[in-house]
Design a protein that fits this description.
The protein has helices spanning about 5-15, 30-35, 40-55, 55-70, 75-85, 90-110, 120-130, 135-155, 160-170, 170-185, 195-200. By secondary structure, it is mostly helical. The chain is globular and about 45 Å long. It comes from Sedimentitalea arenosa. This is Urease accessory protein UreF. GO terms for molecular function: nickel cation binding. Required for maturation of urease via the functional incorporation of the urease nickel metallocenter.
């Protein structure tokens, strides 16, 4: 089935780096990983990013987004999203982006919410506006990967060509994760990216920081 071009344009706007959610100021613990030397080139960043997507917040947030999209009331999904945050900064990352998304979206699309975590907010807004869930999931995941790729280009530093190549390589994974999230439930959520979670905790006391997480 061909997706409505208007829906794709709306999703592209919501999930663009230009949309004012402040995503550029969060590294999801990557800044600490770079400082420790764990991420230092294209190959190490590619492994780090793919693990985050497949075994960490990428997959978990996609499932939360889909659950919020299907729910009559997303309050329980939002409470779960907050409980899953492994550190203070990661909680702030999802809560602050969700609030910023609501502020930007409500005046234009009249979305009826304010205080929701980011993936939950996107899921509720997509449902309210009648946007297709599968496309919402795929573009949400790709935007998440794109933001972290942009952070890596600044932090490693990773060249523009290498950063874009890593992102392009993640496209099939984002599509696969989006497809899986369509059939998943919150019971399927799990994470095993311990180094990234520890990095998010360690970042709170990192001496020199460019990012909020």
């Amino acid at each position: 089935m061909r997706t409505d071009p208007n829906a794709l344009l709306t999703l592209s706007q919501w999930l663009s780096p230009a949309y004012p959610v402040g995503a550029f100021s969060y590294s999801h613990g990557l800044e600490w990983a770079v400082a420790q030397g764990d991420v230092h080139d294209r190959a190490s960043f590619s492994r780090w990013l793919r693990d985050i997507l497949e075994y960490g917040a990428g997959r978990s947030d996609a499932i939360l987004l889909a659950d919020a999209y299907r729910a009559d009331d997303a309050a329980e999904t939002d409470a779960l999203a907050r409980a899953l945050a492994p550190s203070r900064e990661r909680l702030a990352e999802t809560v602050n982006q969700g609030a910023a998304f609501a502020r930007a979206t409500a005046p234009i699309w009249e979305t009826p919410f304010e205080d929701l975590c980011y993936p939950v907010a996107v899921g509720v807004a997509a449902k309210f506006c009648g946007l297709p869930l599968r496309d919402t999931l795929a573009l949400f995941l790709y935007a998440f990967a794109g933001n972290l790729s942009s952070a890596a280009m600044r932090l490693v530093p990773l060249g523009q060509s290498d950063g874009q190549a890593v992102l392009a390589e993640c496209a099939p994974l984002c599509l696969s994760l989006a497809e899986a999230a369509m059939e998943a439930s919150p019971d399927d959520i799990g994470s095993c990216v311990l180094a990234a979670d520890i990095g998010a905790m360690k970042h709170e006391t990192q001496a020199t920081r460019l990012f909020q997480s």
